[in-house]
Design goal:
Number of helices: 9
Order of helices and strands: HHHHHHHHH
Largest sheet: none
Radius of gyration: 19 Å
Shape: elongated
Distance between the termini: 67 Å
Number of strands: 0
Helix content: over 70%
């Protein structure tokens, strides 16, 4: 990708996310183009739809998260799930205001659905390679953990979960490994 292409792509994204953060009601291709100082034809060379801007953003963030996990030795440390949650924390902290904004309203359900699907698909691929679970079971586990994790982060961003990021990563890692049995009182015989 050449420098001009990257620069234009970034201008489009900045225009879109700037409008998003200002809570502008109607975000149109025409307005994105005006703010990015490009014409419509140029926009459509980069993206087919406005939603594709978010799709690209989600994919890039997912790739960054996976790279971070690999750098921290996720696979080398017996799949220490806490590394995955720490990677999510780092991703959230990079764009905290954006994620907080997108977590606070129902207008961005498609964003959460999309990122949940991406996380689920990625997790399913990891489970395929490293577990004995069959396809149906892998899919169920992946969907469950992706949905629960992202719901927890969304609640965290909205201030409904009263842990800091590090505590949240620790708690989610514990839940992921031991489930509800990790907090159950011992049964008296």
């Amino acid at each position: 990708m050449d420098r001009r292409y990257r620069k234009t792509n970034e201008a489009i994204r900045q225009a879109y996310f700037g409008m998003l953060m200002r809570r502008e009601k109607k975000i149109t291709v025409a307005e994105i183009c005006r703010r990015a100082d490009i014409d419509r034809k140029t926009f459509y060379l980069h993206f087919d739809t406005i939603e594709d801007i978010i799709v690209l953003f989600c994919r890039e963030k997912m790739d960054e998260c996976m790279k971070h996990m690999e750098e921290k030795g996720f696979r080398d440390k017996s799949y220490d799930i806490k590394i995955a949650f720490e990677a999510l924390n780092d991703m959230v902290e990079e764009n905290r205001e954006l994620y907080k904004f997108m977590a606070s309203g129902n207008d961005y359900e498609y964003f959460w659905d999309m990122i949940t699907q991406l996380v689920s698909n990625t997790l399913e691929d990891v489970l395929k390679e490293y577990t004995i679970a069959d396809e149906r079971e892998r899919k169920l586990y992946a969907m469950f953990y992706a949905s629960a994790t992202l719901s927890s982060y969304r609640a965290f961003l909205c201030g409904e979960v009263k842990f800091n990021g590090e505590e949240l990563a620790e708690k989610l890692a514990k839940i992921a490994w031991s489930g509800i049995s990790g907090i159950m009182k011992p049964m008296n015989d």
